[in-house]
Design brief:
This protein is mostly beta strands and 150 residues long. The chain has 2 helices and 6 strands. Helix content is 11%, strand content 41%. It has a 5-stranded mixed barrel with strand order 1-3-4-6-5. The longest helix is centred in the middle third of the chain and has 10 residues. About 15% of the residues have low confidence.
Length: 150
């Protein structure tokens, strides 16, 4: 099984690119904090490269900026290339399968991105019947606490 789940912050504004066949792709880096601090008391982070394709690449480049928090699900992907000196270099990236918006507009504007506009989750779910929401009468949240059943 090859599965990776990350929660981290973008280290730079993602820049959308296109292949020769006009397929959108995006390479970006996510800083993921470690669960411990170093000897100096500072929290360390890992910087993980991610590759996204097509519509997901376009969406991330449109709605995310440097410092925004993102949740990523994907798989490890290895590759290699020859550098300009003819040396073989090996790469390891996370190939993105799914992503989630973690912060809303208010948090994004605190990080300096005033143009951030989080899309509705319904933008990505064509099968959801927005007009007949079965939970509409319960307000903004619904409790799923198991203690309610006792």
């Amino acid at each position: 099984m090859n599965k990776v789940i990350l929660l981290g912050r973008l280290t730079a504004k993602p820049e959308l690119r296109y292949t020769n066949s006009n397929t959108a792709f995006l390479r970006f880096t996510v800083a993921v904090n470690r669960n411990f601090t170093g000897a100096d008391g500072k929290r360390e982070a890992d910087f993980i490269n991610v590759v996204a394709w097509r519509k997901q690449a376009e969406t991330i480049s449109k709605y995310f900026d440097k410092g925004n928090l993102i949740a990523i699900e994907g798989r490890l992907q290895t590759g290699s290339y020859d550098d300009k000196d003819g040396n073989r270099r090996y790469t390891m990236d996370v190939a993105l399968d799914n992503f989630e918006f973690v912060e809303g507009k208010n948090k994004a504007s605190q990080t300096g991105d005033t143009n951030f506009e989080e899309p509705s989750p319904y933008d990505y779910q064509d099968s959801v019947d927005v007009e007949n929401d079965p939970f509409a009468e319960y307000g903004d949240s619904v409790s799923i606490d198991d203690n309610f059943l006792d």
